[in-house]
Amino acid sequence: MKEAANLLLDENGDLKPFERFSNDVQKINDAYNKHYLKTEYNFALQSAEMAARWEEQQDDGDGRYLLQYRTAGDKKVRPAHQELNGITLPPSDPFWDKYYPPNGFNCRCTVQKVRAAKYPATDSNEAMKAGDKATEGKYAEMFRFNPGKQRAAYPAYNSYTIKKCATCKKNGLELAKIPSNELCAACPIIRECAGDISKSQAAIERKHYLREMQPLLKKKVVLEIGGVKKSIGFTKEGNKHLYSDTFGRSSVLKPDDLAHLDNVLKQSVYVSTSDRLSHARKDKVKRFFYLKGDINGKTVYLNVAEAEFENRDGKKKYDRFLYSVTDKIKSE
């Protein structure tokens, strides 16, 4: 847009007729909307592939493996990147935080996992110096990031941002207070919109899984608890709490396991009872029964809530339902 705006006036400073202006703009159209677009497409693709590779390379086998920087090995390799070829360091080395490829547009470099016994480690300080030199300059410094570690196809500071974006405190949005910078002024608005989208997606996902769990509301499981057979079921509120647990206290329970919790409950065994409640409850829950179960070969603890109330005749009644799933209980 800036380049097109500069084409509005002719060499004498006069406004060009639209036809001439349009013809001049078409000359830069291919550069931006074809060549640059293809370059950025390739960079995003390469970043995604290297991010996946980074995930696969994290198991270092107790130090038996290192990561080695490698170029494409042909005449097209840029001299700056050739200087990085063969650098060998453990995945934890800070070098990979900044110089894990791609290190520029159309960069074809990669990283290979190698045996430490076969390839000696490079001096980390020397590697960092080589990385700085290979990516020095206004349009090269922005590639100093690790797409796998940052989970981003593009670095925070790129050709569409200002250099200060690289050190912006995103939560505080301090740069948004700079009135002279349009990008900083727009940043909080964009982040707010992105947040709304994220919340909407989370709500859709929650609704989906709670719908998947609806058949559980009709199911009952009878288990022996403390020598007495007790009936345990599911409730709407209990299911909501179970859903929140998939992102909370259990690292074992996953969203796709939720619809089959009745099967997990059937195979569980009683461990202990707790009458201690951490806070006053409105749902009339008086105690919890802890059961030991199994999900995908891993141990979990199922917390069954027991609500106590009286019927019209004054007799006590009990409603038991699966309330949460945790990785451990304090009583064990």
Give structural notes.
The chain has 332 residues and is α+β, with helices and mostly antiparallel strands. It is built from 9 helices and 9 strands. Strand 8 (298-310) and strand 9 form a beta hairpin. The model has no long low-confidence stretch (mean pLDDT 86).
Write the layout of secondary structure elements.
Layout: H1 2-5, H2 18-56, E1 65-70, H3 79-82, E2 88-89, H4 95-99, E3 110-115, H5 124-134, H6 147-150, H7 182-212, E4 221-225, E5 228-232, H8 236-245, H9 261-266, E6 269-274, E7 285-295, E8 298-310, E9 316-326
Antiparallel strand pairs: 1-2, 1-3, 4-5, 6-7, 7-8, 8-9
| Content-based structural category | alpha+beta
Distance between the termini: 66 Å
How would the global form be characterised?
elongated
Largest sheet geometry? 4 strands, antiparallel
Low-confidence stretches: none
The amount of beta strand, in percent, is: 15-25%
Q: Taking Cα atoms only, what radius of gyration do you get, to the nearest Å?
A: 30 Å
Number of separate strands: 9
Give the strand line-up of the largest sheet: 6-7-8-9
Helix proportion: 25-40%
What's the number of domains? 3
What count of helical segments does DSSP give? 9
- The run of helices and strands is HHEHEHEHHHEEHHEEEE
The mean pLDDT is 86
